[in-house]
Amino acid sequence: MPQFPGKGASGYEACKAMFWKLVNARVTTTLVMVENPSWMRRKSHVFERGNRRTLGEEVQPEVPKSLSYAMPSNAPPNRLGLAMWMTDKRNPLVSRTMVNRLWEQLFGTGIAETLEDMGTQGIAPTHLSLLNCLSWKLMNEHRWSIKKMLKEMVMSATYRQDSKLTEEIKEKDLANKYYARGPRVRLSAEQLRDQHLCIC
User: Fold this and answer.
1) Nearest residue to 177 via CA among 114, 109, 123, 116
2) DSSP designation for 110
3) What's the domain range around 112?
4) Cα(first)–Cα(last) distance of the chain, in Å?
5) What's the Cα-to-Cα distance from 148 to each of 30, 99, 107, 140, 142, rounded to whole Å?
6) Where are the beta strands (DSSP E) in the chain?
7) Which stretches within 140-178 are classed as H helix?
């Protein structure tokens, strides 16, 4: 443990006592955005048979071994490192999944229909280049701003087109897979309430 600085100065003992009083004070909230120095971190143990009172060997923060190969070299081996890896520009999966889910919220169906499976087992995206373009924009242009991404989607001509189903559209794109018309999405309970309050 490091020494408290200023030894020998006037009021040293009072300052030291106040510092440790504040460090050890029982407070109702905890700072979660500040990383404690290594000497202040609590020790974590394996709970033997899941019992928190039976402590096993001490463990250190780390990501699952199955993901360690993909971690950036400058990333710490903990949750911060995992977040750095997930949002790394060389890993577009998170942004593609996010864009697909936002698209599904607005249009009723995602660009890739299977929201939970963007891999080989899922349904292939109907507009792959659009998905890639939007995911790139989310990471680079919008810097992970969901608000800006949603604004771009709702300001698009695709979203703003009429949802009326004509005979011509019915023949060409009945299920609206290629967005020949505007989306018809059922309102959620909250949206329905807001619409009702707006009308009344």
Assistant:
1) 109
2) -
3) 92-156
4) 66
5) 32, 12, 17, 12, 6
6) 44-47, 55-59
7) 146-154, 157-160, 167-172
With beta carbons less than 8 A apart as the criterion, state whether 140 and 149 touch. Answer: no
Query: 52 in a domain, yes or no?
Result: no
Instruction: Kindly state whether residue 87 falls inside one of the protein's structural domains.
Output: no
User: CB within 8 A of 35, min separation 6: which ones?
Assistant: 80
Residue 184 belongs to a domain: no
Determine, yes or no, domain membership for 178: no
Write out pLDDT tens, residues 73-126: 888 877 788 888 888 888 888 999 999 999 999 988 899 988 888 878 888 898
As given in the structure block, the two tokens for residue 119 are 């891999």
Total domains present in the chain: 1
Q: What is the pTM of this model?
A: 0.66
- Which token pair is 46? 């394996």
CB atoms within 10 A of CB 172: 11
pLDDT band at 2 (very low <50, low <70, confident <90, very high): low
